[in-house]
Write a structure and sequence with these properties.
It contains 13 helices and ten strands. Helix 3 runs antiparallel to helix 10 and helix 11 crosses helix 12. It folds into two domains: 204 residues, 3-Layer(aba) Sandwich (D-Maltodextrin-Binding Protein, domain 2), CATH 3.40.190.10; 94 residues, 3-Layer(aba) Sandwich (D-Maltodextrin-Binding Protein, domain 2). By secondary structure, it is of the alpha/beta class. The strands form two sheets. The chain has a five-stranded mixed beta sheet with strand order 2-1-3-10-4, sandwiched between helices. It has a five-stranded mixed beta sheet with strand order 7-6-8-5-9, with helices on both faces. The chain is 46% helix and 17% strand.
């Protein structure tokens, strides 16, 4: 962990602790989220979770992170209790010894991540990425998409030069031509399509599932299943509302993500929402990603996803 990240996490933890006092004795649920987490952004905007948890004397603290790997660091050092991330960050975190459990997942959304090139790029296929620089956020869901896309095109990971950058820096590098392609997820994908007319070389269809996961600190999940259940109930209700009111939801979410409404609406159309318990089949798909990362030495040791799945006593069931 870098010194700057340690300082940021310490500040986040202090802010959360301060909020406990402000909550006037209420217990606190600290939720780690990213701007790209559209449903959580909607819940935050509408305040529905706060209303639901008030009956349990639980207040809500929203802690924003720039991407999934940083969120997992926050979960591991106790800055948050639960978080929402893509497929890859939990694998890197588990390999590093983080103490968390998978508590739920959203349905697959393969169209919500893609490899893009500038509109005037000569590249027309993934196979043409050989010898090229490709930007991506290390340890994020798109890392696996890149592996699978290269494999399908007959290339190896070593055939390209990965350039590890967070979304904002990657967008800047992409637009000034410092990299040849960018592997990115929504809503950043929708933004670069709408604003810069970036072209998609390949999205996740036929390659990856692109599940999104709800994670919890292991002890918290065991001790507070009713709070996790309330989070899931609210998520399912808000997901149904979002699907029925797409334009209205986009208008609420756009200011929180700092994006135009039309960008957010495009992004929302490519995601499926509605948390469900993590099944053995979904866990097996996550294990495939972990095995692929270990084979390429992206993680230092093999891991068992089953070790991070909750037992029956702590599994929160989504009932609606």
């Amino acid at each position: 962990m870098t010194a700057s990240l340690k300082s940021w996490l310490a500040a986040a933890a202090l802010l959360a602790t301060t909020s406990i006092v402000a909550a006037q004795g209420s217990e606190l649920l600290r939720i780690g989220y990213q701007k790209s987490a559209s449903l959580l952004a909607l819940q935050k905007a509408q305040g529905t979770l706060e209303k639901r948890l008030a009956a349990q004397n639980v207040a809500v603290k929203w802690v924003e992170f720039p991407a999934g790997p940083q969120l997992l660091e926050g979960l591991n050092v106790g800055a948050v209790d639960v978080g929402f991330v893509g497929e890859a960050p939990p694998i890197f975190a588990q390999a590093a010894g983080a103490n968390f459990v998978y508590i739920g997942n959203d349905p697959a959304a393969p169209e919500a991540e893609a490899i893009v090139v500038p509109k005037d790029s000569p590249l027309k296929s993934v196979a043409e990425l050989k010898g090229r620089k490709v930007a991506l956020n290390k340890g994020s869901n798109v890392h696996y998409l890149l592996l699978r896309a290269l494999e399908k095109a007959g290339l190896k990971y070593g055939d390209i030069t990965p350039v590890f950058l967070p979304p904002a820096d990657a967008r800047a590098a992409f637009e000034k031509g410092a990299v040849d392609a960018w592997v990115i997820w929504d809503p950043f994908l929708a933004a670069v399509q709408k604003q810069s007319q970036a072209r998609i070389l390949a999205d996740g269809r036929g390659l990856v599932n692109n599940y999104a996961y709800y994670l919890a600190e292991r002890t918290y999940a065991a001790k507070r299943p009713q709070v996790v259940q309330a989070l899931f109930d609210d998520s399912v209700e808000r997901a149904a509302w979002l699907k029925a009111h797409l334009a209205q939801a986009a208008a609420l979410i756009a200011p929180l993500q700092g994006l135009e409404v039309e960008v957010v609406e495009l992004s929302l159309k490519r995601y499926q929402f509605g948390v469900v318990p993590v099944t053995a089949a979904v866990g097996a798909e996550q294990q495939k990603i972990a095995d692929a990362f270990h084979e390429l030495k992206l993680i230092p040791k093999p891991i068992r996803i089953a070790d991070a799945l909750p037992g029956a006593a702590v599994t929160a069931q989504a009932t609606k």
